[in-house]
């Protein structure tokens, strides 16, 4: 016994009289050495059904999640129940007021219906559903008051996640669960919560925008006869008839903005289950946290710069680059030099690379198409032109740099500058629209998680020493 104690004491206790950080610093080099060995020499080794490389490499290549609504092919990108973006654009209902307008975009609520059911909704089903969302769109008073009391300097994504999380006070699922419900009924309560959550996003997004940038002024109202994206645009003050038109847009610019929200939100709604926001929502939901808590976790994941926050980072990067190259947006050499300066200072090029994709993201192309279809509006937009030039130049620079497995643009590359064009120039806000959009897919899957009665997610962890066979 005393022998064991001596060994443990020698192995486990710090010998020096040092503080916490110093003690940690001292043990890092040895552990890093072991980590490098495991990564370099043992990645292909099998541990259970996984490779060691997958365990320490962000679970790449591990098929570990059940997800119904979309899938991502490395070369072709996302499909929604097997339909490509263009097929969805052709098949999903638009606003009832613009159903024959070729420039009007599919509605995110049509996408949600499709993601959830796997069935294409009819125009009349969507008219009714848009109206249901509008009627459920009011924010509870305590949420408004709490948002009003947050510091204006709080990042809009943090405000979004707080707002969503607070509404768990409304959760019919949480209340029903507390009373006791059969497991087989859970999905119906979850569906009610999911619809309520999605319905409240336009007002929530508008409230955060107004509080952060316009001192809480009422910028617009929800119109019961309009769709979810139109109401989001109104809440932010970007429509002519239902808002203060805060950016003084023309009628056609305001229509474009609404359609940009529609396209952006429909496209960003789902990207299979492994991305951080979807996975976080699914993981938290697996403990039977209600949809508000679950999706607020998803939003917190989306707020990371390697994931959704890249939407804001790209716009900042494009503006900085334009400045640094003296506005010479067509100067290939200057652009290349700027990219190298970033890479050489160990920064990532935002909007490039992907965990799964190995070609340009078709969502990137769809957003660029949105601008190209409005040639007159965008003909003098240097930012969009720079984004396009960059997409022709950056892949060869990143390939020569030799690190990223995918040197092509991802979805975040193009979308921010489109919003910027129409006056949404508060860059820290851009990911909030992403946050509203991403509710569609992960929350539709959450309903199915409860239909199937999926268990709590609980993989097993393993230590580095064990991976190294020590
Ligand atoms: C909605 C979305 O989430 S889309 C993604 C949005 N994020 C961005 O645009 C941020 C920039 N891109 C990246 O950081 C990455 O490409 C990610 C996070 C998207 C994917 O990461 P991974 O799957 O690890 O990419 P990959 O396996 O190609 O990474 C290998 C190396 O290339 C580097 N790399 C990847 N992309 C880039 C990039 N755009 N610029 C510079 N280096 C890059 C990685 O940092 C990594 O370096 P390391 O070996 O020193 O750690
Ligand atoms: O799939 C991913 O990892 C990131 C992404 O593009 C998304 O979530 O839309």
TrEMBL record:
Chief location bin: mitochondrion
Subcellular location per the Swiss-Prot or TrEMBL entry: Mitochondrion
The keyword rRNA-binding is assigned to this record: no
InterPro entries (alphabetical): Citrate_synth-like_lrg_a-sub, Citrate_synth-like_sm_a-sub, Citrate_synthase, Citrate_synthase_AS, Citrate_synthase_sf
GO molecular function annotation: 2-methylcitrate synthase activity
Any GO BP: tricarboxylic acid cycle
Record-linked PROSITE patterns: CITRATE_SYNTHASE
Entry GO CC: mitochondrial matrix
Cross-referenced SUPFAM superfamilies: Citrate synthase (SSF48256)
Pfam family, one: Citrate_synt
Keywords (A to Z) from UniProt: Mitochondrion, Transferase, Transit peptide
NCBIfam families linked to this entry: PRK09569.1
Family label: Belongs to the citrate synthase family.
Protein name, entry field: Citrate synthase
């Amino acid at each position: 016994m005393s022998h064991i104690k001596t060994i443990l004491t020698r192995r486990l206790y710090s010998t020096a009289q040092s503080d916490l950080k110093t003690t940690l610093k001292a043990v890092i080099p040895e552990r890093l050495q072991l980590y490098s060995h495991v990564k370099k020499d043992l990645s292909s080794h099998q541990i259970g059904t996984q490779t060691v490389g997958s365990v320490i490499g962000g679970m790449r290549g591990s098929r570990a999640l059940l997800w119904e609504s979309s899938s991502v092919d490395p070369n072709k990108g996302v499909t929604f129940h097997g339909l490509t973006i263009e097929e969805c654009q052709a098949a999903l209902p638009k606003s009832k007021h613009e159903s024959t307008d070729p420039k009007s975009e599919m509605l995110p609520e049509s996408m949600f219906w499709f993601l959830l059911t796997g069935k294409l909704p009819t125009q009349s089903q969507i008219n009714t559903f848009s109206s249901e969302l509008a009627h459920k769109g009011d924010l509870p008073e305590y949420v408004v008051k709490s948002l009003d009391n947050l510091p204006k300097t709080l990042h809009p994504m943090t405000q979004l996640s707080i707002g969503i999380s607070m509404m768990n006070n409304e959760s019919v699922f949480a209340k029903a669960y507390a009373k006791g419900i059969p497991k087989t009924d859970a999905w119906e309560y979850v569906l009610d919560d999911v619809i309520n959550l999605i319905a409240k996003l336009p007002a929530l997004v508008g409230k955060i925008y107004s509080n952060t940038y316009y001192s809480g002024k009422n910028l617009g109202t929800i119109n019961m006869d309009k769709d979810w994206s139109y109401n989001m645009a109104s809440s932010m003050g970007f429509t002519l008839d239902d808002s203060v038109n805060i950016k003084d847009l023309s009628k056609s610019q305001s229509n474009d903005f609404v359609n940009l929200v529609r396209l952006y939100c429909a496209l960003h709604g789902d990207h299979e289950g492994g991305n951080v926001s979807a996975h976080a929502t699914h993981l938290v939901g697996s403990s039977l946290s209600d949809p508000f808590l679950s999706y607020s976790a998803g939003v917190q994941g989306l707020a990371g710069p390697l994931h959704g926050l890249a939407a804001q980072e790209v716009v900042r990067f494009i503006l900085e680059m334009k400045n640094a190259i003296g506005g010479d947006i067509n100067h290939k050499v200057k652009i290349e030099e700027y990219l190298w300066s970033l890479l050489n200072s160990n920064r990532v090029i935002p909007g490039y690379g992907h965990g799964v994709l190995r070609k340009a993201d078709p969502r990137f192309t769809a957003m660029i198409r949105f601008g190209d279809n409005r040639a007159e509006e965008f003909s003098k937009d240097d930012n969009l032109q720079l984004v396009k030039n960059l997409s022709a130049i950056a892949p060869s620079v990143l390939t020569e740099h030799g690190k990223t497995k995918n040197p092509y643009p991802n979805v975040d590359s193009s979308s921010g500058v489109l919003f910027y064009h129409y006056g949404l120039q508060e860059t820290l806000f851009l990911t909030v629209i992403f946050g509203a959009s991403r509710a569609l897919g992960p929350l539709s899957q959450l309903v199915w998680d409860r239909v199937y009665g999926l268990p709590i997610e609980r993989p097993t962890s393993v230590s580095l020493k064990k991976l190294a066979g020590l």
